């Protein structure tokens, strides 16, 4: 799996190769592979094997309800994988996902895993077997945990490699999608159509009314809105096949019936991408904060005031960033984060 992860595959090829290798050690009949937004752990795309491609119910079950072995839970756990029967004490019917998704598709056993490296989640997979097949074993789950970091590195590599090859972003107007309380399409603006087409190209398996990530963001917004103390907001970033990053912002729709969610889609701004792109370079939390302000054009004095640290400390953080990214100036650093560094390292 280490060889597959570091072969430089794009996402569809990575998941295809990983599936073939993994199936030799952990047989399965159906699977759903995901990329995750490392900042929010939202599912941003999916690649299915022997499962229906269009299934908004999957994202609703993942984000609107508490359940066993949800990907965000696995990504934050010491053990990155989980067997559904084990988590439910031998009673998988306790899982809403099992009752409403797995069993209706004629499947039974489930093994899930999150792909995590350096405490950051980049992807996930759900493996399934029919009721007539043996359940997944602890040894198989342990194997999936062992390869989690390799698969995370493979997903991260695919995303960053595509970033280095991205086209010049155009000044598209934001698009708006409204969904009802059951995540059914209600309203879509004209500006959303080309952006949705870009998102759809990132997924594999067949046509769908809306890209999976739109349902995921809407479901997360609905779940957040159930709390009186939450405004019902959600966010994700996705690398489109065109090579540019798109940002999705979800919120409960005001002036609409209860539970309606609005999802805005727009080209991502550099400051929004910073947390995603610097994961590969071992940047600390404080260095990332300095970099965010730098990307917004802040001076050393501005950053000092904003972060409550001395100008000398800001300069020290900048020096460390220069060393980590292999640059000598602020301008080179900004360019290296988004265009040059990763492609150069791959060529070397």
Description:
The chain is of the alpha+beta class and 348 residues long. 44% of the residues lie in helices and 19% in strands. The protein is built from 14 helices and ten strands. A five-stranded antiparallel sheet has the order 2-1-5-4-3. The chain has a five-stranded antiparallel sheet with strand order 7-6-10-9-8. A hairpin with a 5-residue loop joins strand 6 (175-179) and strand 7. Helix 7 (138-164) packs across helix 14 (330-347) and helix 11 crosses helix 13. The chain is globular. 41% of the residues are buried. The model is unreliable at 166-171 and 338-348 (pLDDT under 50).
Nutshell version of this structure?
With 348 residues, the protein is an alpha+beta fold. It has 14 helices and ten strands.
Topology:
Elements: H1 2-5, H2 11-25, E1 30-36, E2 43-49, H3 56-64, H4 71-75, E3 81-83, H5 84-87, H6 96-102, E4 109-117, E5 120-129, H7 138-164, E6 175-179, E7 185-188, H8 192-200, H9 212-225, E8 233-239, E9 245-252, E10 261-267, H10 270-277, H11 285-295, H12 300-307, H13 311-325, H14 330-347
Antiparallel strand pairs: 1-2, 1-5, 3-4, 4-5, 6-7, 6-10, 8-9, 9-10
Helix pairs in contact: 2-7, 3-9, 7-14, 10-11, 11-12, 11-13, 12-13, 13-14
What Rg is obtained from the alpha carbons, in whole angstroms? 21 Å
Q: Structural class of the secondary structure composition? A: alpha+beta
Estimate the helix proportion, in percent. Answer: 40-55%
Distance between the termini: 22 Å
Order of helices and strands: HHEEHHEHHEEHEEHHEEEHHHHH
Strand neighbour order, sheet with most strands: 2-1-5-4-3
Shape: globular
Low-confidence stretches: 166-171, 338-348
Largest sheet: 5 strands, antiparallel
For the secondary structure, the number of strands is 10
Strand proportion, as a percent range, falls in 15-25%
Mean pLDDT: 82
Count of DSSP H/I helices? 14
